Amino acid sequence: MRESDVPIARVDTSRQELHGIYETALVEARPLGSSDSDWQELFGLVTQRKQGGVVITAWNPGQLRPTLAANERANAKLLRELRGTNFEIWEADGFSRDRSFREPGFMAWGMGRELGCTLARGFGQFAVFLYQPDGSRHVVDVDAPREN
Predict the structure, then answer these.
(1) CB count in 10 Å sphere of residue 136
(2) Interatomic CA distance for residues 26 and 108, integer angstroms
(3) Are 133 and 50 contacting, i.e. CB atoms less than 8 angstroms apart?
(4) What is the pLDDT of residues 127-145, one digit of tens each?
(5) Which segments in the chain show pLDDT lower than 50?
(6) How high is the pLDDT of residue 6?
(7) Cβ(66)–Cβ(89) under 8 Å?
(8) d(CA 69, CA 67)
């Protein structure tokens, strides 16, 4: 059986419930290509650098749960797009507090909300993490109107 013959799994978790899960996630980051020992909690990195940005993934878009290979291809495509921007890109993984679930993505240092949401929508994502230079983090719905 080919991968294209495998139906894409879905979860019944609502968009609102998924946003709640995102709110509880922890996030670590490291420079692209660095070693496993280089992972650091993102809050500390942001406050140390005094620079925010957007954490984005192409993994598990919305309620879909593609195969591992499809998720890896999607993230590789996202990385190519991110490298085409003028932002410094690091690996960034979001994970559950009990570490039973981990989802790879990227931190685009200095990227703003609008571009981050546009990229995420292109990969079927519901939200991005927006970090402010003070370390505060917001889960931003990619389809929500911008607050003034």
Answers:
(1) 12
(2) 17
(3) yes
(4) 999 999 999 999 999 998 6
(5) 148
(6) 59
(7) no
(8) 5
Question: Rounded CA gap, 106 and 58, in Å?
Answer: 9
Q: Is 137 helix (H, G, I), strand (E, B) or coil?
A: strand
Rounded Cα distance between 98 and 117, Å, is: 28
Q: Are 25 and 95 in contact (CB under 8 A)?
A: yes
In one-letter notation, the amino acid at residue 111 is M
Query: Coil, strand, or helix at residue 121?
Result: helix
Distances, alpha carbon 7 to alpha carbons 60, 64, 72, 76, 103, in Å? 14, 10, 17, 21, 21
**Which tokens hold the place of 12?**
């019944």
Pairwise CA distance, residues 14 & 23, whole Å:
14
Helix (H) or strand (E) holding 119: helix 113-122
Q: What is the pLDDT of residue 44?
A: 94
Residue type, 124: G
Q: Which residues pair with 140 in a beta bridge?
A: 128
